[in-house]
Design a protein that fits this description.
single chain, 146 residues, mainly alpha
């Protein structure tokens, strides 16, 4: 549920509009979906282009005000931590692991599997698994068509 990803425990009249506005801002600024929600939790995953957007700055201030109205900030934080993974099996990392495995090296595959077994646990040295594909990488189309 999207409200959980944003730490919204109770219902407010503008919640759906706030979610819609966030998606529009993310799309406009080509923000990474997973890292954007992690940014909202702890500011460790910068979305440079998005953070420089004056509309996002206004949105973020409104969101923080919204959260402070109806719950303790630590409750919102805990809810967000439960619903926003740090690590996901990113296509470029999966491709890298499969390519290495095709050449007889399964170490990248094993590493990727270990990371995605614990998607919510922050671990030093694993930052590369949280990074989106470089903009020069090709667009992936998966088996499900996404």
């Amino acid at each position: 549920m999207m409200k959980n990803k944003l730490g919204m425990i109770s219902d407010e009249g503008r919640d759906k509009q706030m979610m819609s506005d966030l998606f529009k801002l993310m799309h406009k600024n080509q923000a990474d979906y997973t890292n954007n929600f992690r940014y909202l939790i702890n500011v460790k995953f910068p979305q440079e282009k998005l953070l420089n957007d004056p509309d996002f700055i206004i949105w973020e201030a409104e969101w923080k005000k919204r959260l402070s109205k109806n719950q303790k900030s630590e409750d919102a934080y805990q809810l967000m931590m439960k619903h926003n993974p740090i690590f996901i099996p990113r296509n470029h990392k999966v491709e890298e692991a499969l390519s290495a495995a095709d050449n007889g090296d399964i170490s990248k595959f094993v590493s990727l599997c270990e990371v995605i077994k614990k998607p919510y646990i922050e671990d030093v040295g694993l930052e590369e698994f949280a990074k989106p594909a470089p903009t020069s990488d090709r667009v992936y189309k998966t088996f499900c068509g996404t």
